[in-house]
Amino acid sequence: MLHGKVVLPGFVNCHTHAGMSLFRGCADDVDLMEWKNVYIKPAEKKMTKEDMYVASMLSFIEMIKTGTTTFNDMYFMEEEAAKAAEKIGIRGMLAVQISDMNEGADAKIKEAETLYTNWNDKADGRIKVCVGLDSPDTCSPDTMKKAVELAKKLNVPIHMQYLETKDEINKVRENYSMSVVDYLKENGIFDVKTILAHGVWADEYDLSELQFHDTSIVNSPISNCKLGSGIGDMKFLLEGGVNIALGTDDIASSNTLDMFEDLKSCAYSQKVLYKQATAISAKKVLEIATIKGAKALGLQKDIGTIEIGKKADLIIVDLNRAHLAPLHNVNSALVYSANGNDVESVIIDGKLVMENRKILTVDEGEIVEQARMAARRLFAEQ
Ligand SMILES: [Zn+2]
Fold this sequence. Notes:
- With 382 residues, the protein is an alpha/beta fold.
- The chain has a single domain, classed as TIM Barrel (Alpha-Beta Barrel).
- The chain is 44% helix and 18% strand.
- The protein has helices at residues 32-46, 49-65, 78-88, 105-119, 141-154, 166-176, 180-186, 204-210, 221-226, 234-239, 251-254, 259-274, 282-289, 291-296, 330-337, 364-380, and strands at residues 5-9, 11-16, 68-75, 91-98, 127-129, 131-133, 158-162, 194-198, 215-219, 243-246, 314-318, 343-348, 351-355, 358-359.
């Protein structure tokens, strides 16, 4: 039955904002600040709970169809993402994105605790909740300390965006006269397990701190390239002992949640950065997208490899395709030649969620139509 096919552990997408899928392609080739302030924020303000549910569901459909079985998300109205994840059958970690913007940090911290109470370990344990922080330049020392307190109380990791842009470094230096890594350390962030998204600007000074903590950096090469943030040096961090995971970031900045594209971009970006074909191997990139992602989320005992005693989160990739023939090396085929459409079937938590490219748990066509209608409304009013 599986002749010419390969079974892999499902991909772990370690940095997403699933509710942003309605913004796909709405603001491309513009500056990050313009992207945020002119396009994304006004549309976000109009989003209803129904929009958030549909947007999250659209993201999860795309994730499953391209081989992702676990995601790590932070955004707002995360209860809707939780409901969608429960319904479709994907595994995920959710967090309220706490910052000092909009309604303020205290309300968000309260919301984060409520999300934990209502959703942690729900859906047969598929859903986990952690504490999310937006980024160092939008979180005050007080907010970070409160988030750390909450993470300690709930015994969960902190998921935070970190060293994504030069602007972030400049703002933290201007406001607090210190480096970003010192700012995090000073406010207790490293007292808990951390999942730090991006790390584009991490240097030797950052590494000298990061390597002593339970910290993972989530490489988001497509988002970082497309927004012009830069290419993070993952080879140097990996060799320095930091756990590296992979994430697509949101659809508005990466336009796709297909992890195969990020696998390839992760490999290419390191090779370009070092001007060396040996900078990173296909095998290492596959580890980053699976077991290292599981480790980033603290789920390595349950997922990330195919082993007896672990949860069955599996994807079947069809290699009987012209663009994958002839097959000299499976790892190379998966990283350099395959794409998400080659994923034939997906099993999550032992349950068949997609069979022969058909999602079995929700009506894909209906969700796509609802997403189109919601996006039309959100952008027609602008
Ligand atoms: Zn992000």
